[in-house]
Amino acid sequence: xFNTALLRTAREAMGLTxxxxxxxxxxxxxxxxxxxxxxxxxxxxxxxxLAAAVEIPATLLASDVRVAVPVHRAAKAETKRVxxxxxxxxxxxxxxxxxxxxDVDISAPFEFPTPDDPTPPDPEDAADAIRxxxxxxxxxxxxxxxxxxxxxxxxxxVDFGADSILAAYSHVRSDQRWLFINTRATDGARxxxxxAHELGHALLHWDRFDAPAGKDAEREAHxxxxxxxxPRREMQSLFARSRLTLxxxxxxxxxxxxxxxxxxxxxxxxxxxxxxxxxxxxKQISTRGWRRVEPGPIDLEEPTIMRDAVTLHRTQxxxxxxxxxxxxxxxxxxxxxxxxxxxLRAGHPTLRLVD
Length: 355
Fold this sequence. Notes:
Blueprint: H1 4-13, H2 18-25, H3 29-36, H4 44-54, H5 58-61, E1 72-74, H6 80-100, H7 123-133, H8 144-150, E2 154-158, E3 167-171, E4 177-182, H9 188-204, H10 214-229, H11 232-240, H12 246-256, H13 260-269, H14 275-287, H15 305-315, H16 321-328, H17 332-338
């Protein structure tokens, strides 16, 4: 058995073209093309050379694990090559994470909608429904990540290998839902909105036969994220009694943990401000240099399922990180490169807390 899809994923996770992998492995590029297309099967010796070149165990290339492509990503990659790099890294991280979680029970008091009880197709209605089903109290969502994980999805911090993409969503049918946060992202408000955007895809677009694609799907996910984090009735009440100056919006940003730009767009979408007012606020935001960095830091949320699973293996099972890496099916350095929040590279001094 030879897993052609995994070879392609591992190659792209390294940021390599077929030609570059051929040079790295010393194997003909024409053979690589045939192997990835499933036209031929490499010999065991060739599999070993391929595995060494893409830094994964040869046994993984001979496994039957299902490979998926992240369904959606918040924001676009700069180039196709970066897009393939991000996709490959996320899929390797998902495969490793699924192995780490294989014998771990995940408590999920809530659940995602099912085909028998689907999400309303309108983004505003869907956001209201999920708040109700997941028992989200009125007002700001204090920890969106915790609510998502309470429904059994895994939110995992991964180094995407690129800065432009903040979050992503992937789902292998009959398997867990996975949402990824880029470890390179530092703005908690933007990450929260990106995570809500990916949740919109997970709820609105995965199982719908008539689901929109492309820009239409992105617009729906954006509307869902805005409605989830900034509910219509509460925002209408808030905007009605506020002058919507930037100084006022700074305080609202801290309370609701969203960007000022998201607040302005929500007020405009709810017809609480005019086109002229939106443009004026947008110009003021640009003048103050807030398009990239807004005042008042919002803390990043901390996913717990993967962190707790790794801690469980270390403490109750007594596994070393090298042993956890074997469970994950990747070398420790490769695992630490993909998941730096959870693992240190081999030989790196362990950080210890002292009194």
